Structure formats: C-alpha cells, structure tokens
Amino acid sequence: MRDVVSRRGALRAGGVMAAAAAGFAALSGTAAAEVPALAAQPGRGNGNGRPGGHPGPGTDFDPVAPNTRDAVTVPEGYEQQVVIRWGDPVVADAPKFDVHNQTAAAQAKQFGYNNDFVGLIPQDGSGKRNFLVVNHEYTSETEMFPEGTYDEANPAEEQVRIGWAAHGLSVMQADRTRDGGLEVRHSRYNRRITLDTEFEVRGPVAGSELLTTSADPTGTIVHGTLNNCAGGVTPWGTVLSGEENFHQYFAHGDRITDPQQAERLDRYGLVAGESTRKWERFDERWDISREPNEVHRFGWVVEIDPNDPNAKPIKHTALGRFKHEAANIKIAADGRVVAYSGDDERFDYIYKFVSKGRYKPGRSAHARRHNMALLDEGTLYVAKFTGDSPASEIDGSGTLPSDGEFDGTGEWLALASGNESFVDGFTAEEVYVFTRLAADKVGATKMDRPEDIEPNPVTGSIYAALTNNSDRGAAGKAGADEPNPRDGNKNGHVLEWDEDGTETRFRWRLLLVCGDPAAADTYFGGFDKSRVSPISCPDNLAFDGYGNLWISTDGNELGSNDGLFSVPVTGPDRGQVKQFLTVPVGAETCGPVVRDDLVLVAVQHPGEGGEPGSSWPDGGHARPAIVAVRKSDGGRIGV
Length: 639
Ligand code: FEO
Ligand code: CA
Ligand code: CA
Ligand code: CA
Description:
Layout: E1 25-26, H1 29-33, E2 78-85, H2 104-107, E3 115-122, E4 129-136, H3 141-144, H4 157-166, E5 168-176, E6 182-185, E7 191-193, E8 198-202, E9 221-223, E10 228-233, E11 239-243, H5 259-267, E12 301-304, E13 314-316, E14 328-331, E15 336-342, E16 346-348, E17 350-358, H6 365-374, E18 378-387, E19 407-417, E20 420-421, H7 428-433, H8 435-442, E21 447-448, E22 450-455, E23 462-466, E24 493-499, E25 505-513, E26 523-524, E27 538-543, E28 549-553, E29 563-567, E30 578-582, E31 588-595, E32 598-604, E33 625-631
Parallel strand pairs: 8-13
Antiparallel strand pairs: 1-2, 2-33, 3-4, 4-5, 5-6, 5-7, 8-9, 10-11, 11-12, 12-13, 14-15, 15-17, 16-21, 17-18, 18-19, 19-20, 19-25, 22-23, 23-24, 24-25, 25-26, 27-28, 28-29, 29-30, 31-32, 32-33
One calcium ion (CA) binds next to loops.
C-alpha cells in the first residue's frame, strides 16, 4: 500500500455522509520522505521571498518542491482532507461504491468521474454553508473498470450506461466543519446531472432547425451535457460550465457527403468511423449519419442553478458554440454582464459576450431569474491581438523584444448580436452554431490553446491561460507572434489585459511565459527568475481575496507532477510564482477555489497515462477526488 497520508480525523456520525468525512491529515516528516522528490537543480528557483522583503498576503508559505509522489503534497504547516471522491454518495439513497460491481443506477446517484471545475458558493454571509458544484469532464473506462473487465472494442451496454451516468455535474450541500474543513451533507439540494437530465436551450438559436432531432423536433430540449471542463460561479450564485471536447463522443462523421456539412464537422474535429466509447451502438443520437443535428446540441456554455433543486439546467446559445473551456463573468461599469470564454484547441480563439440588459444585484429568486436571462441576448465578440514590437523582434525563440515586454493592443471583433450577423456569408444562427468558422472569416488571432479566462476581482484586469501549442511554427501552421511568442510552445503562457471602456478595444501583455526559470525562453513578469517555482501548462485560474492569481496545471513538461501555484500580479512581487501543492502521479490539477482559510482542488485522472499507476487516495483503485487544504493552525492561507 502506498497510502502515505496518516488520518487523524475521526468519521463523524449524524447527517454527514460517512464516505465523504475524513479529517485533515498533515503530509510531512517521514511519510513524505518515503517517496521520491526531484533533486534541487542549480538555477531552479525555490520560490522563497524577496531579499529583505516579506511575501505579500496570500503568498507567504514555503513552496512545495517539484516531485513525482503518488500523493497530494502541501506546504509545511498545512493539512489536507479528501472531501469527496468518485463513487461517494451525492444523493441520500446512493448505494455504497463497489468498484467491482458498478451499475449505471448507482453511478447516477454517486459522485461522477474525473472532477474538473469546482464551484463553492456561499449560502450565507459566513460561508459556513455552501453549495458545492463539480463538473465531471469525461470518463476513462480503462481506468474505471478493474483490469480485464472492459473490452474497448466491445463494451457492454451497462458499462456504456455507467459512462453516461458518470458524466455531467454533481450539486451538493457542503458545510464547513469545526476543524476548518469541508464536508458534503445530505440535503434537498443534492442532485446529479447526467446524460439523462433535461436541459432547456435558450438564446438566439433555441428552436432553430439546426438543433432539431427526431427525439426533439422543437430544438429546445437536450438530454445531458458533455465534457464539462472548467466553469465559473456567477455573481448571482449559479454555475456556468463549458462543454469542451464534445466531438469525441460522436461517430461516423465521414458518412456525411454534403460538402458544407462536412466542412463544418471537420472544423470541430469530428472523427471518422466509430467513437472511442462506442456509444452509438446503444443510442443512435451519437451517430452523426443518423442524427446529424445532435452534435449541434453540444459545445455550449450551460448554467446550473444550485439554489433550486428543481431548476432545469440551461444551454446558453448566445455565447456561441465551440470547445468552451469555461465561462467567467465580469460586471461592466454600466452594469452589463460580460462573459469571457476560451476555445481550447491549438490555434483557436478567445471570445467575449456582452449582454444587452443590465445586472440586478442580489441573490433573490427574482434577481437570479433576471440575471440568468441576461445571457440570452447580447453581442458575441472574438479577440484580435496586435503586438507593439516589430515583427522581426518576434522570432519564435521566446526572446523578449527590445521594449522588454510581450505586449500590445487588441480589438474585439463583433460576430453577431441577437438576430443580426456581422459576418459575411453567415446568418446569425450560423454564427452561433458554427462560431469557429465565423471567427476564421473575420481574422481573429490564433492562440496557443485558450483555457480558463478569469477577471481579477480586485484590479479588474482579465487573465487567460494559454496552456501550450506544440504545433506553433510547424510547417503549414501559424508562426510565432507577440501574444504567442514561442514556436513549439510546450509550456504555455499567461496573458493579461485591461478593457479600455469602449467595449471593443483593450491593452494586453504577457504576465508569464512558463517553463523552467533557468531557461532563456521564460519570463515571470519581470521578477527575479532565480526565486520562482518552475511552472508548465497553465490551465485553470482563480483569485484569492487579495487579488493574487492562482494557477493549476495540466501536463507538466518539466518532470514533476502537476500542481497549484500562486502569483502576485501587482507590486514588487509581481510574477513571483510559488508552488502551493502537487497532485498525485498522472493527475491533473483542476478547479482551484481559494478562500481566506481554505483551498480546494480537483484531482483529475490520478494514474492516467500508464506506469507508474496511482493508488491515490485510499490505496487500491485510484479515484478522482476533491481535496481541501487548510493551515494547521486554522489561520489564513498564505498569511
Ligand atoms: Fe479540459 Fe481545456 O481542459
Ligand atoms: Ca512589445
Ligand atoms: Ca481544463
Ligand atoms: Ca487542459
């Protein structure tokens, strides 16, 4: 057994769900030393504070060293707890999880697979009672089912149905514990959203012929949501969740012979032949040749209202259809609602939606209904970036231009507003459903895989994670430009911009060009690179109450497991990246939530990608899970 975490908390009785209740455990001393850590390397920073200075609030902790442990590793003086793991009960009568006897009926009541986005929404001013809303991005059947029980070429129908139930979201009541932790409780709010759950299609293409199927001739009701990657909590207390790589679930795109239809499918990456999971064998909606419009019903931003357990989830078509990583809201100075969203594919785009109507403060049912409707009507834009240095200074090496910064100006190009299209050859409906093709047409800037985009609640600046793009500069592909300055970009970068108040123009700069700080092609906001943590492949973003940016990573290229990092964006410590935690081997770090005295991360796909596998968190079969981290003395994070 490799379970190096010693638990000192006792299981609690009463209304607490037994499987979810495990006390905090410190990971330090001898237990941590049993597993290998990467040796300190010359030139690699350790992320400690600046000489003679004290780290600013929120980032005062001893950084975790890069490592390949099969554990969550937190700083000295911090403790961790598994809040909920794949298979744990979400609704009250959920059966106990048994990896050897999985059923679709059980999975539909249990916590789904591969947790990604995590939303923690306070139900009261104190933050003691909360809704916990979690995305279940995708299934990995070869990891879920015990070895030798899943035949990829010939899955059993029940295994396919388990997959349908393991997707979607979990909505739960989660309350703070007396020791500062977080536990999932039985409540009337708890529910699972799966591929059986009805969604209401809203906005400009609700009822469009492009969305009608034989099961839904109205084009307004869709069963389920797919590949929900990241998301955002809205100011009105709901969750927006991005349908990302929906293309992979559909089969037989190659049977489409109409050239326009084939071009549209191709732009969204629809594959020929059978799908990986073979769902089309059990429901023909996954077969494009039989139900050609079903695929148009995925690739949207969806909204879940945890405040009302009977609220039907919504698909918001006004935000466009692409591989949405997430969506995050900023309220503009005039009260209109701005939603930012990235399309996570190499050479795809950054978008924003600006509502027609204005935000109504408060979280009453009335205010919530009003604000949710704001996302039905407005203008959809795509971003065009222009560098302010001569193109000759951007040679793909990552060398800073002579003005010392990768920076410039930007323009938001309008695609459609309500029923009006601004793109030649596209109706408004076509802009919303085939957004990528419309954005191609207007000459948007091809980015290095836009992931999470998040406004800083303290400064108002906007941040986007561009995770990587190994094809930048490859034959026949776009070369480096100032906002994407490295060819063969393996480690990604983080972009920052400020809107100028006109709705269509902004000023941008790169905050981080990620990688090994000892390498010449990295940049840490101008901070001394000998005193930062290495960081690779930024994915999800969050802010703490002080306005520090927190970044979780997916696919570390530097030999360490993935992790969570903090970085101040203002003041003398701007750019000082410090590693707060690492996740187990093979896992991706998702969903960071940073409260004053609590950090949450989703540990997605522990052990994925072969040997060495993972037995996190309990020993035995690896299970994706949500982890809470707090300071051992109960104090504020990073203070
Ligand atoms: Fe599912 Fe873009 O990460
Ligand atoms: Ca410049
Ligand atoms: Ca992601
Ligand atoms: Ca990712």
